[in-house]
Automatic annotation (TrEMBL):
Record bears the keyword Transmembrane: yes
Spans through the membrane: 95-115, 121-140, 152-174, 194-214, 235-256, 276-297, 331-350, 356-374, 395-421, 427-448, 455-475
Sodium/calcium exchanger membrane region domain: residues covered: 120-295, 332-473
High-level lineage: Eukaryota, Fungi, Dikarya, Ascomycota, Pezizomycotina
Protein name (record): Vacuolar calcium ion transporter
Reported function: Has a role in promoting intracellular calcium ion sequestration via the exchange of calcium ions for hydrogen ions across the vacuolar membrane. Involved also in manganese ion homeostasis via its uptake into the vacuole.
Record organism: Exophiala mesophila
InterPro entries documented for this protein: CaH_exchang (IPR004713), CAX-like (IPR004798), NaCa_Exmemb (IPR004837), NCX_ion-bd_dom_sf (IPR044880)
Family of this protein: Belongs to the Ca(2+):cation antiporter (CaCA) (TC 2.A.19) family.
Keyword line: Antiport, Calcium, Calcium transport, Ion transport, Membrane, Transmembrane, Transmembrane helix, Transport, Vacuole
Length: 491
């Protein structure tokens, strides 16, 4: 870190001492910027032993707006369209900036959707690509907004915003479902279930694997704090246990049911499985609330220390602090615009799913691999860049955090919404996918146990994900065979 940056950092913690016992010159000399609250005209000057309040100027000399973290201060107010657009196009890292070249696909996807004709595959492909820059904008705007908050609250908010794309996709899918609960035209439940587990696997294996791989190639070995790894892996394991309960319940009893008459019928088993799913969904949301309280209230001081250490370990911290930032109003406007575009692309994708499946793309490959990849692409780029810059705790949290939110909130939310819409959305997953999830969590937990990472562990995680993707491509569609009772026997 340069000497200038070190001097600037000193403005946050202490007031400069006078060189002699003589009265110091005026702090508000012409041409000089006040360094702290004490230097503002009309303010009462505390004693040297008194702790100063939050400084009014950040590293770039920008006057800090009240309640805004200095690192996120832009030095501007309101909305400046051209300057905001210029900052957004430069984005937070080179990889994220490169994604912005895909923005022409967004109007192309909108045009294809409203133009009459048989171009369903083209609409799906263009919308699929267009989702990436839209999600990238949402991630960047969320990151800028998070910078203006305290570090713990900002990290949690940034993680939650990254899952908005997934929630929108789930909501569009459940809204478009035909509500019969049976495999056939208009059924989206199998895709939703595959996308839930696929989202968790993509974060745990692909994203975390690339973080360990890229970070390990630059830093050889990276150490992370146990509160991130232990709490994260523990919660994921508990969530996986809860998600597999309805599947285990259904699979253990389906062989003893009777078609009709006296005894435990298959219809009763389906109703009981659905009721169990509703109860598990409510319990998991309560667990998610406890997780948020743990992060933001009871143990926020520990997380804040971890984030501060990661900020100091950032290899390009100086450049990151000096780069222009959007205002609070611009960040909120960018989030709103990104949400509109993400919602449009999600609708376009969902409406073309059946045509894609009919042309040879398996249901489970679509839900387990393709959908999570596009919804997480922009987030993964930023996360891998954090690992490359030696912010391994941030990267680890941004891998485990979204997985926890998917398992404890997003999946239960779509079950409850389906309940409200009278659609039989449950947590009765394919046994094959549940086994994949549990084994993947055990593999990741074993790699996190020693509190360090290297490129070999990252490469192995990516290899496991590729093997899962290959297997998912050859897994038969539900109308051919199924382990959760939605196969040919239902027809």
């Amino acid at each position: 870190m340069s000497r200038t940056s070190l001097l600037n950092l000193g403005l946050f913690n202490r007031k400069p001492k006078p060189a002699s016992v003589d009265p110091p010159p005026s702090d508000n000399a012409v041409g000089e910027k006040p360094n702290s609250v004490d230097d503002l005209p009309g303010s009462s000057r505390p004693s040297q032993n008194q702790t100063s309040l939050l400084p009014r100027h950040n590293h770039n000399g920008h006057r800090v707006t009240p309640h805004i973290h200095p690192d996120g201060e832009s030095g501007r107010k309101g909305i400046h369209p051209m300057q905001c657009l210029k900052i957004i196009m430069k984005s937070s890292c080179r990889a994220s900036m490169a994604v912005n070249v895909l923005w022409p696909f967004v109007p192309a996807a909108i045009a294809l959707h409203f133009v009459h004709g048989s171009h369903h595959l083209w609409t799906f492909a263009i919308s699929y690509i267009a989702m990436v820059p839209c999600a990238n904008l949402l991630g960047f705007a969320g990151q800028e907004f998070a910078r203006k908050l305290p570090r713990v609250a900002g990290a949690v908010l940034e993680t939650c915003l990254s899952s908005v794309v997934e929630i929108i996709l789930f909501m569009v899918l459940i809204a478009k479902d035909n509500g019969t609960g049976e495999i056939g035209h208009g059924s989206k439940i199998a895709v939703i279930q595959a996308a839930i587990l696929g989202s968790i696997l993509t974060n745990l294996l692909l994203c975390l694997g690339f973080c360990f791989l890229v970070g390990g190639m630059r830093h050889k070995e990276q150490k992370f704090h146990p509160i991130i790894s232990e709490v994260g892996s523990g919660l994921i394991l508990v969530a996986a246990f809860a998600l597999m309960i309805p599947s285990a319940f259904f699979s253990s009893l389906i062989g003893t049911t009777v078609a009709q008459g006296e005894g435990y019928t298959e219809d009763q088993l389906r109703r009981d499985t659905l009721n169990i799913s509703h109860g598990v969904a409510i319990i998991l949301i309560v667990a998610f609330i406890l997780f948020m309280v743990y992060n933001c209230v009871s143990h926020d001081n520990i997380f804040n220390e971890v984030w501060n250490n990661d900020e100091l370990a950032d290899r390009d911290r100086d450049a990151d602090l000096e780069r222009p930032k959007v205002t609070l109003a611009e960040a909120l406007l960018a989030i709103l615009i990104a949400l509109v575009f993400v919602s449009l692309m999600a609708v376009f994708l969902v409406e073309e799913i059946e045509y894609v499946v009919e042309h040879g793309v398996p249901d489970f490959f679509l839900g387990l691999i393709l959908v999570p990849l596009v919804e997480k692409a922009a987030e993964h780029i930023t996360t891998v860049d954090e690992a490359y810059d030696n912010q391994i705790n941030f990267a680890l949290y941004h891998c485990l955090g979204p997985s926890i939110q998917t398992a404890l909130f997003n999946a239960p939310l779509v079950v409850i919404v389906g309940w409200g819409l009278d659609k039989p959305m449950d947590l009765n997953f394919e046994i094959f996918m549940v086994v994949l999830l549990v084994l993947s969590i055990l593999v990741v937990g074993n790699f996190l146990r020693d509190g360090s990472s290297n490129y070999l562990e990252g490469a192995l995680l990516v290899i496991v994900y590729i093997i899962i993707a290959l297997t998912a491509y050859y897994y038969p569609n539900p109308h051919l065979t199924s382990s959760n009772g939605r196969g040919p026997a239902d027809e």
